[in-house]
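Quick note —
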Amino acid sequence: MAAKPTALKPDERRQLEHMNLLMRVARDVAAHDTLDQMLHAVVTASAEQTRAERGTLFLNDDQTGELYSRVAQGTGFREIRILNNTGIAGDVFQTGRGAVVLDAYSDPRFNRAIDQETGFVTRSILCAPVRGVKGGMLGVLQMVNKTDGAFDEADLHLLEAMTTHVAMTLRGAQQL
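Predicted structure written out below.
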C-alpha cells in the first residue's frame, strides 16, 4: 500500500511557491531577446509578486559613483541617478543588506529629491542588493508602495531571490 502524502506546512508551501515563481521568471527572462527586455521582465515580476506600485533596478556606475536606473517603472524614459552612498538604495548598496522601510519620510536615509522632482509620493520601500556571481555589488532592486498592506520580511526574501535573476541575466549578457 502506498504511503499517503503528507500535507505541506505553511513554510514549506511558501518555499514551494517561491521556487515555482523563480522557475517561471527564469523561463520568462529566457524568452526575451535583449538585455533590456530581460531586466524589465524581472522588475515587472518582482513588482507583481511583492504587490508594489512600481519597481526600479539601479546599477552602479563605477566611474561616477552613482546608481542609475537601468529599469524604472512609471518614470517614462527619464533616467534616475543618485550617489551610490545616499538614500535607502545607496545604503543597501553600501552595506549589502536589504531593507524594509514602512514609512519612507520618517527614515533619515530617505532621499526626497526624486519625489520632489517627479511629484510621486513614496510611502514604503523594499530594497535588496544585487550581487554579482563573484559576490561584488552590482546595484539594488527596489520596490515602492505596497498596494495592499505593508512590505515584510517574506517580501524581502522574495526580492532577494529575484536579484539572482538580475545577476545571472547581467552575467549572461557579458558572455555574448
